[in-house]
Every structure is written in C-alpha cells, then in structure tokens.
C-alpha cells in the first residue's frame, strides 16, 4: 500500500494504480478507503471522462431506489451508514460505466472493480460472478484467478477455491500471495500437511512474511507434528526439506 500511495502521489489519476490500491484496502479490511479509492478510479478513468456521475447516480436511484443492493447484515454491522451509501454509489457508477463502454477490456476492469465492491459488502455470489466475467476476457491474469479463489474461500467454498489458486500459480509459480491463500484453503479443509507445505513455499518466496511462521505452527499442531514445532520456532526453513517438498529460493 505504501508503494502504491507513492505512485499515486506521482500520478494521482493512474487507473491501474487506483484499482490496485482499492483492492489492497479491501484486503486490509479498510472499507472506507476502499470505497473512496474506487470512486476515484471511476471518476478519473479516461474511458468514463464524459460520464455525468451525479446524473448517473440520480437516474439509477430513480430506476431502482436507493437500496438497490441487498447488503449482508454482517456487513451492515461492520460499516458505517455513510460507507454503505458510498458503496452503493460506486456500484451504480460501475454499472453505468458498463453501459458507456462494454468493450471487452473496459468491461473486464469494471467487473474486477465490481468484484471488489461485492466482496466488501459480502455478496460473495455476485463477486464470484463478476470475477468470472473478468476472467473470460483475461484468462491469463493470475491476480484475477487469485481474487476469485479468495472470494470462494470467503464464502466457505475452499474446495472450489483451490482450483483457482492452482490456475493462478500455474500462471505465476513464484506468486507468494497465491501460495499463502492456498495454504489457508487447505487449512480450512483440514489438509494440514499440504497447508504446511504451502506455508513453507510462501516463506521461501517471501522471507519477510514473519507472521506466516505462526500459521505454520498452527498447521503443524493440528497435524500433530510435534517434532517439527522446534524447527518452526527457530524459523529454520532449510531444515524442513527433510519433511516437505517445496522449492527454496
């Protein structure tokens, strides 16, 4: 996020950076900044420069009412009313953006952003549909595959999420975030040995991710691998090669 903020300081209107920053805020559960950034993404995207944002919001409200999206009750409790209202605004703007330019590349960007918005509101079915539509246009986008997997996992569909993570990693084998998400999915499915292997691969790719060692210790404990806990405590990555198949970089 810090790097993206610096990039925004240099180019406040970069659509690629604004969308990536919005996604990053979602990952950090910073919903207010996520919504604010996505609104800025729509407002500053060159394809939608001629869109009357105020008029679009008013027209959509007249057509569908101010409560056109059924937000999850848990999301309501976790966000301020203003944030939810702004999220509805972002959703309506994105849907209107599709009407303005529904060419494949433009639609993929919008569907990706919609997937992020629906994740914030915990409408995971809508988010899954949005990411899948984006993937139809960009099947080789490993980050989209990862986002789809994370959304499936968030909706208690970890088994389905694994195939998305596998696809993401086949496209980019050294994608640390993909390995971490796959490890978490395996843990959710009680596949603790495979989860441990994926955590180790994550640590090999990103040795600064010290918090992953605690995830590894939990997986080893659940798998009753008591003899390996001292290795995890000492953060001795190389020593795990005797027990797990992973590539050390």
Number of helices: 14
Separation of termini? 25 Å
Per DSSP, what share of the residues sits in E-state strands of 2 or more residues?
A: under 5%
Structural class: mainly alpha
Keywords:
249 residues; mainly alpha
In short:
With 249 residues, the protein is an all-alpha fold. The protein has 14 helices and no strands.
Architecture blueprint of SSEs:
Layout: H1 2-10, H2 15-27, H3 31-44, H4 53-64, H5 73-78, H6 81-100, H7 104-120, H8 124-137, H9 142-154, H10 158-171, H11 176-188, H12 192-205, H13 211-222, H14 229-233
Helix pairs in contact: 1-2, 2-3, 2-7, 3-6, 4-6, 6-7, 7-8, 8-9, 9-10, 9-11, 10-11, 11-12, 12-13
How is this structure best described in words?
- With 249 residues, the chain is mainly α.
- Helix content is 71%, strand content 0%.
- The chain has helices spanning 2-10, 15-27, 31-44, 53-64, 73-78, 81-100, 104-120, 124-137, 142-154, 158-171, 176-188, 192-205, 211-222, 229-233.
- It is elongated and about 60 Å long.
């Amino acid at each position: 996020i810090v790097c993206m903020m610096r990039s925004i300081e240099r180019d406040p209107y970069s659509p690629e950076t604004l969308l990536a920053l919005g996604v990053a805020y979602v990952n950090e559960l910073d919903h207010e900044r996520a919504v604010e950034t996505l609104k800025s993404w729509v407002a500053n995207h060159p394809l939608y420069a001629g869109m009357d944002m105020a008029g679009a919001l008013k027209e959509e409200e007249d057509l569908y009412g101010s409560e056109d999206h059924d937000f999850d009750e848990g999301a309501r409790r976790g966000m301020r009313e203003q944030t939810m209202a702004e999220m509805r605004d972002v959703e309506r703007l994105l849907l209107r953006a599709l009407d303005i330019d529904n060419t494949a590349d433009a639609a993929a960007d919008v569907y990706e952003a919609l997937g992020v918005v629906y994740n914030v509101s915990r409408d995971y079915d809508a988010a899954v549909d949005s990411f899948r539509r984006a993937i139809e246009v960009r099947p080789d986008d490993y980050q989209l595959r990862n986002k789809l997997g994370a959304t499936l996992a968030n909706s208690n569909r970890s088994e389905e999420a694994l195939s998305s993570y596998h696809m993401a990693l086949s496209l980019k084998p050294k994608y640390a975030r993909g390995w971490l998400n796959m490890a978490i999915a395996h843990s959710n499915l009680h596949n603790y040995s495979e989860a441990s292997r994926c955590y180790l691969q994550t640590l090999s790719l990103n040795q600064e991710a010290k918090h992953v060692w605690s995830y590894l210790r939990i997986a080893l404990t659940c798998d009753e691998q008591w003899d390996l806990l001292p290795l995890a405590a000492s953060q001795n990555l190389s020593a795990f090669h005797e027990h797990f198949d992973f590539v050390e970089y």
